[in-house]
Design goal:
The complex is a heterodimer. By secondary structure, chain A is of the alpha/beta class. Chain A contains 11 helices and 21 strands. The two termini of chain A are 31 Å apart. By secondary structure, chain B is of the alpha+beta class. Classes of the chains: A alpha/beta, B alpha+beta.
Chain lengths: 433, 138
């Protein structure tokens, strides 16, 4: 089902007219309301009047995580505090979260975008949907929730973490749809299979996101659960889940171009690449009020397809992600930066021991192990002291990154030490093949 | 008291052999070894005639080790003599962190132990009249 035909199926000309109109407005708005953007534009010798349409977008400055960090927490807000009704956040590189703030209208537009995505996956007001993303600062839970409610479906706000309860309610309430991370759904699928409960469920569609996943994972969940799985893309800085989703033809994720202006740039030259070439996805929010962002660098590598899709939608499609331009890891849907691990280890004894992060996917679940070299200053002749150290590191990492992490003490020199910039992560998941 | 060298080891095949080779290849005499292990790592505790030298040697090879004091006591070959020693220590309110056996002379078996209070342990054992060893005895 197409939720908003007039928007989702506009001609390219119509899309560009709307985008240009909105871009001009948003540039004018940030110039006059966000000193940080005004300074940035003035440094480039730009005035709002210089931006007459999307053809001028390349003149505008980029926004990066560093800009968000510098303006933490509310420096990029473009409206008075009294207009803001919501704050969401996700992890940032330095331990300072990335914050996004929303006005009431932002929440409504987010719900509309999220509803379009759910409708694209075939969800209607007759569906019963379990939202198995975490509710809280993470945008996953509330983003899917508002979208599904806007659509008129019956929402069961499960949140994440209790798969047994999720399974029970899935069966008892006859849930027909589920929104959660792909690894969590696979975990649930295997539990259902092992408990011989697969014939008791009514799921027909899954909308999975918040972490990259492979076609093998899609095949596996569809094979076990007999449903159709869709990929949903979003990021806190832009709004959350609902930025893009794939339709039943699965030829990329339709991005809502009337609200988000996508560009693909070469991360080295920072210039737009020709259509069809891979580069970093950059998004300008066209309708956001609370915290509009100009040319936000997502650090996700992909390319865009603009031809009309068989589903009838004209909105550009984000193709399979090829990787990231930074070292962010997505573990069970949680963004983790190696620098957060480093900062946590620093608090143990004032200097960072040599460490390595090993990431893998075992039985479709991400594993995250931190190996820490035991130097003499940490070492004790008593087992209980070393176990205490392990627990302390575990607790600090949990505080910092919000994940249960396996900590392993290893001998010095057990870990690869490379020359120059030491590599701290070994990711064996092969997510971007 | 004697000086004990503790070495951090991952649970990997051949590590104990590696450590012992490094030490004995340099002519240091190892009097006792004890291995405490967990599922991921172990601590090799050993007594030898030149612990500082062994410590430096391991350090050069990038192996983590540490020297700590332990109390080494001679326990005569008599029924109940070990219990007598342990009882005296425990009765004085001292807790024993770990203990292992070693062989130093023919008069009896010996034990090395780390307790919560070494000075008091030595005092208690002196009162009991048992023989203790010093580093020079190794």
């Amino acid at each position: 089902m197409i939720w908003n035909v007039t928007k989702e199926c506009m001609s390219r000309d119509e899309i560009e007219v709307i985008q240009s109109k909105r871009l001009v407005k948003i540039v004018d708005k940030v110039y006059h309301n966000v000193p940080y953007y005004r300074n940035k534009m003035q440094q480039l010798g730009l005035e709002p009047g210089d931006i007459r349409g999307i053809e001028d977008v390349e003149k505008l400055p980029f926004t990066t995580y560093e800009d968000l960090n510098e303006n933490y927490p509310f420096g990029l807000a473009a409206v008075p505090m009294s207009e803001l009704v919501r704050l969401q956040a996700s992890s940032g590189t330095t331990g300072r979260p990335k914050i996004a703030v929303y006005t009431r209208r932002d929440i409504d537009i987010w719900a509309e975008c999220s509803a379009r995505c759910l409708a694209m996956a075939g969800i209607t007001k007759d569906d019963i949907i379990q939202v198995g993303y975490g509710y809280g600062l993470f945008t996953g839970g509330l983003g899917a929730h508002y979208g599904a409610e806007f659509l008129g479906a019956l929402v069961i706000p499960m949140s994440s973490g209790n798969s047994q309860k999720l399974i029970q309610m899935m069966i008892d309430c006859g849930a027909t749809a589920i929104a959660c991370t792909p690894s969590y759904l696979l975990h649930v699928a295997e539990d259902l299979r092992d408990a011989d409960l697969l014939d008791k469920i009514k799921l027909k569609v899954a909308i999975c996101g918040a972490e990259p996943w492979t076609n093998e994972m899609r095949d596996k969940m569809e094979d076990i659960l007999h449903l159709e799985a869709h990929d949903i893309y979003g990021l806190t800085e832009i709004c959350g889940p609902g930025v893009a989703t794939d339709c039943k033809y699965h030829k990329g994720l339709h991005i809502w171009e009337d609200h988000f202006l996508p560009e693909i740039i070469d991360p080295n030259t920072l210039k737009q690449v020709p259509h069809g070439e891979t580069g970093e996805l950059v998004i300008t929010t066209l309708t956001k009020e609370g915290m509009p962002l100009l040319r936000y660098r997502t650090k996700d590598l992909t390319y865009l397809e603009y031809d009309k899709c068989e589903c009838g939608r004209t909105m550009a499609r984000i193709q399979r992600f090829k990787g990231r331009t930074d070292d962010m890891l997505i573990i069970r849907g949680v963004n983790v930066f190696p620098s957060q691990v480093e900062a946590a280890l620093l608090t143990i004894d004032g200097t960072t021991p040599h460490y390595m992060i090993y990431v893998d996917r075992v039985n479709n679940e991400d594993t995250f192990e931190v190996h820490v070299e035991v130097e003499e200053r940490f070492f004790s002749d008593e087992i209980s002291e070393l176990e205490k150290l392990t627990k302390q590191i575990h607790a600090r990492l949990r505080e910092r990154i919000g994940l249960n992490v396996k900590v392993k003490l290893v001998e010095p020199n057990a870990l690869p030490h490379s020359d120059g910039k030491t590599k701290h992560v070994v990711d064996n998941r092969k997510l971007y093949v | 008291m004697v000086r004990q060298l503790s070495v951090f080891l991952e649970n990997k095949k051949g590590r104990v052999n590696d450590i012992l080779s490094i030490i004995s290849d340099s002519g240091i005499n190892i009097v006792s070894v004890s291995l405490a292990d967990t599922s991921d790592f172990g601590i090799l505790r050993l007594l030898c005639n030149a612990p500082e030298e062994a410590h430096n040697m391991l350090k050069e090879k990038g192996i983590t080790s540490k020297i700590t004091d332990v109390v080494a006591v001679c326990v005569p070959h008599e029924v109940g003599s070990l219990k007598k020693v342990i009882y005296a220590i425990t009765n004085a309110g001292i807790s024993i962190n770990y203990i292992y056996g070693l062989s130093l002379n023919d008069d009896g078996a010996s034990i090395a132990m780390k307790t919560s209070d070494h000075a008091k342990t030595i005092e208690v054992l002196n009162e009991l009249g048992v023989k203790m060893f010093n580093q020079e005895d190794l």
